[in-house]
Design a protein that fits this description.
The complex is a heterodimer of chains A (405) and B (455). Chain A has 17 helices and 12 strands. Chain A is of the alpha/beta class and 405 residues long. A 5-stranded parallel sheet of chain A has the order 10-9-8-11-12, with helices on both faces. In chain A, strands 5-4-6-7 form a 4-stranded parallel sheet, with helices on both faces. In chain A, helix 15 links the parallel strand 11 and strand 12. In chain A, helix 6 packs parallel to helix 9 and helix 10 runs antiparallel to helix 11. The longest helix of chain A is centred in the middle third of the chain and has 27 residues. Chain B is α/β, with parallel strands linked by helices and 455 residues long. Chain B folds into 3 domains: 138 residues, Rossmann fold (3-Layer(aba) Sandwich), CATH 3.40.50; 114 residues, 3-Layer(aba) Sandwich (Rossmann fold); 144 residues, Rossmann fold, CATH 3.40.50. In chain B, helix 11 packs across helix 13, helix 11 runs antiparallel to helix 17 and helix 13 packs parallel to helix 14. The complex binds iron/sulfur cluster (2 copies).
């Protein structure tokens, strides 16, 4: 990360992404620009830092991220990268990711642009027809491995996984895979589109969260390959059946406790909200409040359709409104983003999220079981008896008294 | 040994042992009643710092931002700063907005004082909150500087020269935990003193479960008390490496208030120094009985535990004021600090350590300033550390050295209850001492094939 110290510091090793090989991604590298670099330019320091780090770690490639400051002082990232690439013989790729240039979306695009420079630089002749890339999964708690195992059981070869447990050498030949499966978050959608445009390899959107989406995604992939491998559908059906068989008894056990409990769902995209509603149904739970920050009018209409009557549907609510809904419905668990977690806890509501810090896999069929376990651990905890919003039912502890000053 | 000519910091930074300046300023502003920290810069800085702080305190925390885009960076961020403050007023009705700059706005040269002056003129008809600003580029200094500068800015910009004389004593505790602040307030009161603690994060960053959401957590130093500090009877500030423009010295210089600068009062000698000052300020002849007893119990514990800790080689890292206090404490219990590392530079850390360890530590540790964890690890490689003290960020190194890590300071991201850890006075020292002894016992126990049940 080419910039002052903070830009890199806050992302150091906060994700639960696992690697089957080296763990360079768990280190945080920065040029830690100082005042004199800001005044005289940061290029010399960047070059020296890259040379030092590349020599120390001998990576297969280096990605160099620019930060706002670098954009401002006008360091020529491209030129420094080229120079270091020449000296070291590895690809050194600039990622134009200045924060002030836009939102996360622009960051994704910048990263895809950089990665795309690697695509197509290795031989793909030995890649079989029945092959895919896993895009947009970060291998949080080994989730990519779970998906990979399913795909292999279906008879597919996984060429590259991006970026979870990703490898430079795989990325180089990722254009050889017949299909790119893009997880809904969209981080690598641009890369899939670039590959499609240049190499004619199609992509499909998938989701690995929740039983239905998981199964649908696998069937979608199977269908894609059905004419090349007539058996693949049968294998996929068998896989889904046996996986479900494996988790259903466990789910039933959780369901016994959770039946009739209430959830509030407030997530980024509507897609995820739908998937969560389905998941909660499997647990016998009612989604009493549902909303998304980025939903369209259509999404809301559809949400109204799939939820039970009486469900509160919210769009872009502020914390005060959310609190009102949670209170009104007396929900047992709240599913939201990282932002909402401390608020939920402060108000004494159980919470689950799908953020990248998690250390438990929630994807795949086994992920559904873990999700149930998480929800169960939150909903069934006796601690909620003591939080203010419920305590009053038990005793008069909330009464104002003269000691409250 | 204070500087090894053979050691040279790498050009690149791997796993920084410091955080950025506005983060410290945000933490300080969080300790003012009704205050909202506001970063003048890109949105990303605020988002990340907020998350980082939340992971330590596990409390809802908002940090506002002027959310500059590329074109603002070219034409100046003034309009966005003003708009941003108006938004904050609408959303939070704050009593104070604490504006800290970032690398971006410092580089483009935004003059915050001027912009805020305009703001007050433009919107003078509104009921404006107090707005304090502080310059915190991260390419200069660390989060610790940001914290100190923000506290200084609060005092310097808010203290009312006309304020009436009072019996209050100002306390600038630095970056200690909410639990420490609660403890310090109790201690002052026990001496019959009325403290104004700035910042006071005891409730804002460690609050109770609530029935109703509070856009700004309650608690914190009331703005009116900060304004009245110019009439305070005395001030006390913690930190061995504080700058010349500290909050305490500002009161002394501008209002003639006597300031006592103390090391973070950790260890018997550190705590004694605090209690001596409190005796003096309160006019008590000696410390109240309960502290005599606490002190006595601590000495008793030192004796009971001395063999477990004696001669253990310790690595200490983190922010400069904390590492000095920790090293001084380790020295007095017989631990051998071998290496002290900090991301801060040029603060006379080695000299402070030398002074703080005088008479109790025959062999001074190697002190390395301006280092990252890569440098620290490289240095420690040949030192066989047996004990590590610092924040969570050194966990992977302690693990590699197979030495227990005693978590102190900020951030604590891999343990529970960082906001409730105590380090100050006899009570805090006792807690830390117990943790150290137990960690060493536990290590001995789990390493031993016998697994002694009676150690
Ligand atoms: S730009 Fe500066 S203030 Fe913002 S995160 Fe980076 S180092 Fe910190
Ligand atoms: S927004 Fe810009 S300055 Fe802030 S953390 Fe991101 S890259 Fe760094």
């Amino acid at each position: 990360m080419h910039g002052p110290v903070g830009c890199a510091a806050y992302t150091w090793d906060i994700r639960g992404a696992l690697s089957s090989g080296r763990e360079l991604h768990r280190l945080s590298f920065t040029t830690d620009l100082r005042e004199k670099d800001i005044i005289f330019g940061g290029e010399p320091k960047l070059e020296a830092a890259l040379m030092e780090l590349i020599e120390r770690h001998e990576p297969k490639a280096a990605f160099v991220y620019s930060t706002c400051i670098v954009g401002l002082i006008g360091d020529d990232l491209e030129a420094v990268c080229r120079k270091v690439a020449d000296k070291t013989g590895i690809p050194v790729l600039p990622v134009q990711s200045e924060g002030f240039k836009g939102s996360k979306r622009e960051g994704y695009l910048a990263a895809c642009n950089a990665m795309f420079r690697l695509v197509g630089t290795a031989d793909v002749s030995d890649i079989p027809e029945l092959s895919v890339n896993i895009f947009g999964d970060f291998n949080i708690a080994g989730e990519t491995w779970i998906i990979k195992e399913y795909l292999e059981r279906m008879g597919l070869t996984v060429v590259a996984s991006v970026t979870g447990d990703g490898r430079v050498d795989d990325l180089r030949r990722s254009h050889g895979a017949s299909l790119n499966m893009v997880q809904c978050s969209g981080a690598t959608l641009d890369l899939a589109k670039m590959i499609e445009e240049k190499y004619g390899k199609p992509h499909c959107r998938v989701s690995w969260l929740g039983i239905e989406d998981m199964a649908d995604s696998l069937y979608k992939v199977a269908e894609f390959f059905a004419d090349k491998d007539p058996e693949i559908m049968a294998r996929t059906t068998e896989l889904v059946r046996s996986e479900l068989e494996g988790i259903l008894p466990g789910l039933a056990r959780y369901r016994k406790d959770l039946e009739g409990k209430k959830a509030a769902v407030y997530v980024g995209g509507a897609f995820k909200a739908f998937s969560l509603i389905k998941s909660f149904r499997h647990l016998g739970m009612e989604v009493a409040v549902v909303g998304s920050q980025t939903g369209t009018a259509e999404d809301y209409a559809e949400l109204a359709e799939v939820t039970d009557p009486g469900t509160i549907i919210v769009d872009d609510a502020n914390p005060l409104e959310l609190q009102e809904f949670i209170k009104e419905k007396d929900v047992d668990v709240f599913v939201g983003g990282v932002k909402e977690r401390p608020i939920a806890f402060k108000l004494g509501v159980g919470f689950c999220d799908h953020n990248h810090e998690r250390k438990i896999p929630l994807e795949g069929f086994v992920g559904m079981l873990n999700f149930a376990k998480e929800v169960h651990a939150s909903v069934m905890s006796p601690v909620w008896n003591f939080v203010p919003r419920r305590e009053k039912r038990h005793r008069n502890a909330g009464k104002e008294c003269s000691h409250d000053r | 040994m204070t500087g090894n000519p053979a050691s040279k910091n790498a050009v690149s930074t791997t796993n920084a042992c410091k955080l950025c300046t506005p983060l410290g300023a945000s933490l300080a502003f969080k300790g003012v009643e009704g205050a909202v920290p506001f970063l003048h810069g890109s949105q990303g800085c605020a988002t990340y710092m907020r998350r980082y702080i939340i992971s330590h305190f596990r409390e809802p925390i908002d940090i506002a931002s002027s959310a500059l885009g590329e074109k603002h960076a070219v034409y100046g961020g003034g309009p966005n700063l003003k708009k941003g403050i108006l938004n904050v007023m609408k959303k939070y009705s704050p009593s104070l907005v604490g504006v800290a700059s970032t690398c971006l706005t410092e580089t483009i040269g935004d003059d915050m004082g001027l912009i805020l002056h305009e703001f007050r003129n433009d919107f003078g008809d509104l009921d404006l909150p107090d707005v304090v600003h502080v310059s915190t580029p991260s390419y200069q200094g660390t989060h610790s500087d940001g914290f100190n500068r923000a506290v200084h800015a609060l005092v310097d910009q808010l203290a009312d020269p006309e304020a009436a004389k009072s019996e209050r004593v100002a306390l600038f505790p630095g970056m200690v935990s909410p639990a420490d602040i609660r403890l310090l307030k109790d201690i002052f009161r026990e001496y019959g003193l009325t403290p104004t603690v700035l910042p006071d994060i005891s409730e804002t960053l460690d609050g109770p479960a609530l029935e109703d959401y509070e856009p700004v957590a309650s608690g914190g130093t009331p703005v009116s008390e900060i304004k009245a500090l110019s009439g305070a009877a005395a001030s006390v500030e913690f930190g061995s490496c504080l700058p010349k423009d500290s909050a305490g010295l500002c009161l002394e210089k501008r209002f003639g208030i006597e300031n006592d600068r103390l090391r973070i009062p950790l260890g018997i000698r550190g705590a004694d120094a605090l209690h001596d000052v409190l005796c003096e300020l309160s006019g008590l002849e000696c410390m109240p009985r309960r502290y005599k007893l606490e002190r006595g119990r601590l000495v008793d514990a030192y004796v009971d535990g001395h063999k477990y800790v004696f001669g253990k080689r310790a690595v200490v890292y983190g922010e400069e004021n904390l590492v000095v206090a920790l090293t001084a404490f380790l020295a007095e219990i017989g631990v051998q600090p071998v290496l002290v590392g900090t991301g801060a530079e040029g603060k006379g850390i080695a000299a402070s350590i030398e002074a703080a360890c005088e008479g109790v530590l025959p062999e001074l540790p190697l002190v390395r300033e301006g280092v990252d964890f890569h440098d620290i690890a490289e240095e420690a490689e040949t030192m066989s550390p047996e004990l590590v003290l610092g924040n969570s960020k050194g966990q992977r190194y302690a693990r590699a050295w197979n030495a227990p890590l005693i978590r102190v300071g900020f951030p604590i991201h891999d343990r529970f209850g960082g906001q409730r850890l105590k380090t100050v006075s006899y009570e805090g020292t006792q807690e830390l001492y117990d943790r150290i002894v137990n960690a060493l016992i536990e290590k001995k126990q789990s390493d031993s094939p016998v697994g002694w049940g009676y150690i």
